[in-house]
Amino acid sequence: MTKTVKGGDIPLPGAKFQVWNADDEISIGSAAGNLAVRAEAGSEVSIRKAVAAASVKADIDNGTSLMLKSANGMETTLGADAVDMEPGTYTLTATQDGKTLEGAEVEIEAGKAYTAKVAGGLLGNHAVLSDDGYAMPAIKLAGPRPIRRTWPSTSGSAHTT
Questions:
Q1: pTM of this structure
Q2: Of 6, 58, 74, 85, which residue is most buried, by most CB within 10 angstroms?
Q3: Which letter, b or e, does each residue of 136-156 get, where b requires 16 or more Cβ atoms within 10 Å of its Cβ?
């Protein structure tokens, strides 16, 4: 197989070809069209769906409650199931065994996942919010190690891609 310069029969220097199995293709399920990715050898390319909200859950014991209060006064009680929160600044408060603990002002970013909990310190327990990374998983499009498959050919020898 050769590649020539368009409109002639001069070989195109440095042209490389790859073959892949259609089963290895990644569908992103978009009506927007197809996506082709070219990456330097050894590099990794991934995409992540952008989301407008953050995902926040609580890691709590019985007798403990955690709440986020927005700047406009809206209160959201947190539980083990994640809730979607608009990005912004909130006050995180905790109540443990009927006692209100020291609160914290927290910043929530769109597309991120967070866990609220009660943590102990030198001055007692207080509410904290930890950043768990992105709410949506990354889809790897290209990476340093290609997928290799071997299958028998009609000539009797095996082909590897």
A1: 0.64
A2: 58
A3: eeeeeeeeeeeeeeeeeeeee
For residues 82 and 58, is the Cβ–Cβ distance under 8 A?
no
* Tens place of pLDDT per residue across the chain (161 aa): 667 777 777 777 777 766 666 666 666 556 665 666 667 777 788 888 889 999 999 998 888 999 999 999 999 999 999 999 999 999 999 998 888 888 899 999 999 999 999 988 777 888 999 999 999 988 887 776 554 444 554 555 444 44
Helix (H, G, I), strand (E, B) or coil at 55: strand
At residue 31, the 3 state secondary structure works out as: coil
Note whether 33 and 54 are within 8 A (CB).
Answer: no
Which amino acid is present at 116? A
Q: What's the CA gap between 117 and 97, in Å, rounded?
A: 14
Residue whose pair of structure tokens reads 């290609």 in the numeric block: 146
